[in-house]
Amino acid sequence: MDNAWLSLLPSILAIIFAIATRRVLLALVGGIVLANIVLFWPSPLDMFSGTIASAWDTLIKPNNLLIWAFTLGIGALFGVLERGGTFNQFVATLERKQLVESPRKARLLTWLLGVIVFIESNVTIMIAGTTSRPLYDRLGISREKLAYLVDSTCAPICILIPLNAWGAFNLSLISNQGVEQPLWVFIQSIAFNFYAIFAVLLALFVALFNWNIGPMKHFEQAAQPQTASKNQFAAEQPTREGKSSLRSGTSVVFISLLSLIAAVPIMLMVTGNGVMVEGDGTFSVFVAIFLALAIAIIGTLLTQPTSMARVFAHALKGAWNILPLAIILWLSITLGNLTDALGTGEFLASVLDQSVASWLLLPLIFLLSALTGFSIGSSWGTFAIMLPLAIPLAISLGLPPAPFIAAAISGGIFGDHASPISDTTIIASMASGCEHIDHVRTQLPYALIAGILTTIAFAFTGAVL
Question: What are the transmembrane regions (predicted)?
Answer without folding.
Answer: 12-41, 62-81, 108-128, 186-209, 252-271, 283-303, 315-336, 356-377, 389-414, 446-464
